[in-house]
Design brief:
The chain is built from five helices and six strands, in the order H-H-H-H-H-E-E-E-E-E-E. The chain is α+β, with helices and mostly antiparallel strands. The chain has one domain (24-187). The protein has a six-stranded antiparallel β-sheet. Helix 1 packs across helix 5 (84-93). The relative contact order is 0.23.
Length: 202
């Protein structure tokens, strides 16, 4: 059930994390990760309307999706106070993720590194932030081994960093202003094609 109730951010985050820590789901088998297909995301009818969150979760909503907006009905993120914890919390409410706590929770389980993702949730993602400014998501595609790709805002999807180098390590890649690596997460898509992600975002 979803409630459009505004309560103080600190209290809201505390309550949400307490609820999430009690929630567990069984593993969901037989699912996959998408292949690298920048042409789909860079098409004129999608490129300006889908961002890194859309791309990483493999959901082309054409709404420039924001963590938490599908749950609340409005964008709860305050750019002035943006942090890793805030983005993780609101994305969790979209039914996508929570920080790793030893439990397989929601549709998008947290991990201490991308290699922890298994056949139940084979899609590997990473979250980084520019504190007090912006967040950014990356994903590893099924057909590219351990190479990361991403889509920054309304720009083209690509599999190189801000220096034009292939991304095999989020920590060592040129991430531009995104100085903090928040963590790695495991999700899934129902097929290897684009726009088949498991999460509900808006």
């Amino acid at each position: 059930m979803r409630f459009n109730i505004k309560i103080p951010t600190s209290l809201r985050e505390f309550l949400l994390l307490a609820i999430l820590s009690l929630s567990t789901n069984s593993a969901i088998a037989g699912l996959t990760a998408p292949v690298y297909d920048p042409g789909f995301w860079n098409a004129s009818n999608r490129v300006s309307y889908n961002n890194c969150y859309n791309y990483a979760t493999n959901e082309a909503t054409n709404t420039f999706a924001q963590p938490g907006r599908a749950y609340f009905g409005y964008n709860p993120i305050n750019a002035n106070t943006l942090s890793c914890a805030e983005v993780r919390t609101y994305a969790a409410l979209d039914g996508t993720l929570q920080q790793y706590n030893g439990k397989d929770t929601f549709l998008f389980a947290g991990a201490t590194n991308a290699s922890q993702c298994d056949s139940d949730r084979p899609a590997r993602l990473a979250l980084v932030v520019a504190p007090g400014y912006d967040y950014h998501w990356y994903r590893i595609d099924r057909d590219t081994g351990d190479r990361w790709s991403h889509k920054r805002g309304g720009t083209n999807a690509k599999n190189v960093d801000e220096s034009g180098q292939a991304i095999y390590s989020i920590e060592s890649a040129n991430r531009g202003p995104y100085t903090q690596v928040c963590g790695y997460f495991c999700s899934y898509s129902s097929s290897t094609t684009q726009d088949t992600g498991a999460v509900t975002i808006n």
